[in-house]
Task: inverse folding
């Protein structure tokens, strides 16, 4: 039966007190954290750095606080209309090549007797030339039972598929960096965080796979001097809140408060936070010489949602390129209407839809029959393949 709207409303009415109490408590804590952030950014940068030096505090400020107003660096670009903003984008990105990769997958199905999966990545390369030329392409891999073997009982087989997708995405980005002809006029966009904290909950081998891939990407960016940005549209990172808890120990350590939530009311479109070096405990300890080489900023990319988190290698800050790279990302967001156009297009290129899934199974069935392999398909799946 479909869900009952009347029952949902009735139960929400019953739980109103709990939800109201939580909301009030959260708003009160958020106010304290926002006040603490404003206080910190009103201090002398060198004094703050000295006070936090030598401690694991979540993040360390890199930029001075001179340009900060009410906790953020105000947007320096204002336009009267869409046409003016696009003219700014053209002037900024002309001759700058943006490159992004995304992936999709078909997980193993219980409707097939043999565990088999498909991973596809797609990329979009836009040199922003006057002729409007660009490149889109895909690459795929099929994971066999040998690829999908799990080493621990209870380990989900889907994790092997996700790891392979991650490795393929990163490998394509690294190959692009290796062949990049004009690194100083290129921008590589990674759809996600450069800090693979999500892998903290996985088994050691899975952690190593994610870390190995990400470290190779960071090392390639540094070796070939190709600007790299990890873009996180909806971030639940707590590096700033951790910093504030160390800076003002009297703050209530609320785990439900995250950085983007803290910053949201302080920022208007195009505003950003100062750059900070990520000093998060956990998975970064496995990054070797890249452990302290990730910096981040929060950028307000929409008018009514929390800011996005942008991460980049530390060498961009040292080379004095961080501000230009942040502007390139901002320009991509303008074109994409609130999300980087290159990442959005790579996603559209890579995505596997229901018809793709059916086509994969149909080809697999025909191929298995031709090769006389004992691959059995459920009656339900065979029926679908015949009807579609």
Result:
């Amino acid at each position: 039966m479909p869900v009952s709207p009347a029952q949902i409303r009735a139960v929400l009415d019953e739980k109103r007190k709990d939800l109201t109490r939580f909301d009030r408590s959260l708003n009160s804590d958020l106010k304290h954290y926002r006040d603490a952030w404003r206080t910190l950014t009103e201090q002398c940068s060198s004094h703050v750095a000295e006070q936090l030096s030598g401690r694991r505090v979540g993040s360390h400020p890199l930029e001075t606080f001179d340009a900060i107003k009410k906790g953020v660096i105000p947007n320096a670009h204002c336009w009267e209309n869409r046409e003016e903003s696009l003219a700014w984008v053209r002037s900024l990105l002309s001759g700058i090549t943006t490159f992004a990769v995304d992936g999709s997958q078909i997980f193993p199905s219980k409707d097939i007797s043999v565990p088999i999966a498909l991973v596809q990545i797609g990329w979009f390369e836009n040199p922003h030339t006057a002729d409007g030329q660009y490149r889109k392409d895909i690459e795929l891999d099929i994971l066999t039972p040998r690829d999908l073997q799990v080493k621990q009982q209870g380990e989900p087989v889907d994790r092997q598929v996700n790891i392979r997708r991650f490795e393929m995405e990163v490998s394509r980005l690294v190959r692009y960096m290796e062949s990049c002809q004009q690194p100083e006029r290129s921008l590589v966009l990674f759809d996600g965080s450069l800090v693979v904290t999500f892998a903290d909950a996985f088994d050691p081998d899975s952690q190593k796979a994610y870390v190995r891939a990400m470290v190779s990407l960071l090392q390639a960016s540094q070796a070939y001097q190709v600007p790299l940005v990890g873009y996180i549209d909806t971030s639940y990172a707590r590096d700033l809140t951790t910093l504030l808890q160390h800076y003002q120990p009297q703050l209530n350590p609320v785990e439900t408060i995250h950085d983007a939530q803290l910053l949201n009311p302080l920022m208007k479109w195009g505003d950003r936070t100062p750059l900070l070096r990520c000093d998060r405990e956990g998975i970064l300890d496995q990054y070797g010489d890249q452990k302290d080489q990730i910096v981040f900023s929060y950028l307000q990319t929409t008018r009514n949602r929390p800011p996005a988190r942008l991460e980049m290698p530390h060498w961009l800050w040292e080379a004095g390129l961080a501000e230009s790279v942040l502007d390139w990302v901002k320009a991509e967001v303008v074109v994409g209407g609130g999300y980087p156009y290159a990442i959005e297009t790579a996603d559209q290129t890579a995505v596997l839809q229901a018809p793709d899934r059916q086509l994969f199974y149909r080809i697999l069935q025909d191929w298995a029959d031709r090769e006389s392999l004992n691959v059995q398909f459920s009656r339900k799946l065979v029926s679908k393949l015949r009807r579609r």
Summary: The CA atoms of residues 22 and 28 lie 10 Å apart. Residues 356-387 form one domain. The beta strands are 58-61, 97-106, 117-126, 135-143, 186-191, 228-232, 276-279, 294-299, 308-313.
